Amino acid sequence: MTLALRLVAGAVVAALGAAAAAQCQAQRLLATDGAPGLNFGRNIVSRGDWCFASCDSPDEQGEVHVFGRSAGGGWEPSGILRARDGQRGDAFGSALALRAGSLFVGAQYANGNHGAVYVFDFDGTRWIEVQKFTGQGAQLGAGFGGSLAVDGGTLVVGAPFDYTRNTQDGAVYIFERNQSGQWVQKARLTANDGRVFARLGHSVDIEGDTVVAGAPGDWTNSQPGAVYVFKRDGGGVWSQVQKIRQQGGSNEDELGISVGLEGNMLVAGAYRYPDEIDVGAIFVFERAATGQAFFQTAMLTLPDGAPDDALGRHLDFRFGRIVAGSRGRYLYRGGAYVWEKRGLGWRLIGELLAEGGAPIDRMGWGISIADDGTAIVGSHQEDNENGEQAGAVYVFDLDCPAEIRELTVLEGQLLSGGIPELRHSDDSYLVTRAKVTGQVSQPHLMRLRLGATTRRLNPDTIEIRVEGRITDVSAQTTLFLRDWVTDDLVAVSQYPMTMEENARTFTVPNASRFIRSGDGRIELEVRQIVFFPFTLGGFRTYFDQIEIHAR
Predict the structure, then answer these.
(1) CB distance 189 to 242 below 8 Å
(2) Are the beta carbons of 53 and 378 closer than 8 angstroms?
(3) Considering its fold, how many domains does the chain have in total?
(4) Alpha helices per DSSP H over 26-134
(5) What is the pLDDT of residues 484-508, one digit of tens each?
(6) Mean pLDDT of all residues in the chain?
(7) Span of 89-93, 341-345, 414-418, 508-512 with lowest mean pLDDT
(8) What is the span of the domain harbouring residue 419?
(9) C-alpha span between 425 and 300 (Å, rounded)
(10) What is the CATH number for 230?
(11) Domain boundary pick from 261, 281, 309
(12) Is residue 272 part of a domain?
């Protein structure tokens, strides 16, 4: 992969080729009561039409900001949640989990430093606190509520500093919802070989009858870090079924600092890889079927990873994609990276950076993949209009089209409209008129060239969508892409555009030839010819949308 150089806040840093700018940043969210030092965006969760982001609070108890879907599809503020019995130093918001109609908020230092979890239910108008519970058997300083995950009627709560066999060997608590709607403890899970400072439960996830829990401090065989797998049997009894180690790791990786489970695939972050210099890595494990053992299938790293990047300290895994934070990237400006499962392997497809980001923002702490596939990433130490380290949250479209930046009519005339009219299929048009020859026997020609930039990394194909109509009977329409290897324009598709508006989509293979290395530039030329013109004054073309995707 070609590396480019760019200037960030006065420092030259190495950049991942086509990702020279933020990948389709769609929205920036701020705390509604923003103030210096709030660290907004420390933890994030989104499901359905809701997004929640936690931060510190002026009274140092912690708070959670609520965002709901706006009419335009974005996020808009919808309130702030605080614990009714909150105390200074509770760390309310230390973890978040969300299921239909219920939000779970960890407060790992509440309840006399044992930790607690608060439950908020949506009553149709607002989110209200309905329950607070602690872990039966949780020790002083257990950190109960330091991690959370929920699936259906089962909630998993991590207590990484809990004590069973050894100091801070950690524990995981299982809660289920009873018929009256209350969450009650059903099990306390520990490692069969719990070791000193293993911190089981630092990260947790659940799907169905499988729970995975990270123990990043486990030091067995000089390879710190492990992931434990627990299974619920038909009688509702939980038991440990596997302890997972990484292959290709090093002595101080802290595997399990973050985990994600989807179907028969498990991902785990190891942000201290290799040998505690914090470049970071993500390990992927798969199983053939539910109930069978996981085995390692991949190890993911950045091609230009550097010490202190800390890749994988936080991640989310949904829809076959991994979004992993790298809070130390680019002088601690931070960012997040997107991998997608392709066949038997994984492909790095995106770099997420905040527009205007600066060193010490530490973006990539809170991460959530929303139901619409967008990535929501916190930049909790960002200095902004709310003050120093007020923090912000960014929303990224992972499947955004290439950004059209240049438009030139090479043959003919531009009558009205421009790039904005091409972005949406909404009956707002870019209108051109073909070059007029003045002779019925000679064809009329229109040539339109677009310059676009994609931020997608390593795509296989380019997808072009053209929607429009002409004022003549039919125009032979040919699409050309510039081949950056030969510097030639290459015809990639041809079709007739008619008086009836329609949309055509074309897929072009070998995308790497048509995307310029370093800046992601794509050049598209649209040529239209009417050989026997019906409109002697030059046919007009009404382009409703032209969209270019690298996939």
Answers:
(1) no
(2) yes
(3) 2
(4) 110-113
(5) 999 999 999 999 999 999 999 999 9
(6) 92
(7) 341-345
(8) 403-550
(9) 38
(10) 2.130.10.130
(11) 309
(12) yes
